[in-house]
Structure prediction request, 340 residues.
Amino acid sequence: MKKTHVTLCLCLLLALFAFRQDTGAQAAPENNLMAGEGLEDAPNAFVAALKTEDYMAMFNALASWKQNAVGLKQERLNNRIADGKFTGDEAKAWITAQDPTGELGLKTLEDLKGAHPSKFLALHSGMTLLLVNEMRKKNRLNWYVTDHQVGLLQTRRDPVRMLPWGGYVKVENSAGDNITFLLQIDGGKWKISEFDIKVGSIGIELANVLENEISSGTGHKAWSSVQKSRAAEGEQLLGAARDFCRVEYSKTGNEGSVTKPFERERANGSFDGTYYEVKEYIKELPGSDYDAAITAHPTDADDPWLAILFKWGSGKSAINWYDDKKSMDDAISKLREEVK
Prediction:
């Protein structure tokens, strides 16, 4: 009986050892590429393209599925155009707001419909505002890779509970600006699946760009390019506040449970910037297709007043700009009172 017991224990230990060996082999890099070879190529190409204002090169540095997501976003806009829900006047207003100096050469509705996805991404993300207001002043600065990691990749928003093999690269310059990249292997090369740009007063995060709805901005003040670049900081802060709230909501599935953690973070200054401060979390919007909203107030009252509307589950969002606090409060009040 003892001999049988010992034999079974040995078999169990051998099986566990074999299992650990097998799972270890799955988690560990299988070749030089997975070990990080070439990880910095796409981020370096992206930064070089920022300095030379090469929109196609920026687009080509993205993973194929992110390029597809940009194409899908553009096709949805074209469908709105075809259905008469996005007019020529609205297109002109949107193009002017996103690219006030005309860097992309897009002027009309037809230009917008026929734009290459690389130009559409640059327009929708406000990349030209970044280049005109910040990058051109800093082109003499060098960018340095200050962090480089390879391993199982977890993204904040991915609803698919999987941990793909990925990489992380951070680049910085002497002015205190930084860009972070998440990368995955695509077609035998490391490609960018997410980027988060923080240069001067402007922040651009790919995930926000792909989630946010396109707004024409018609009927508003004629904001200057400087005001628009400052508003980009407010949009970045709203995106961070939304992500925080969605994490808190996921813990309980209760909108009310988000209020206290949000107020605590806000009081600690977690959502404060140079030009904008996140102010209010609003739950329950029966007059909207969205579930909740967060507002951001400018430090200069003449700058745009901002609100982000979002859905708890998908994270789908829309950022609206308002002329003043009253118009923002009136719009939010309407969403809170109406029935869908």
About this structure: The first helix runs from residue 2 to 27.
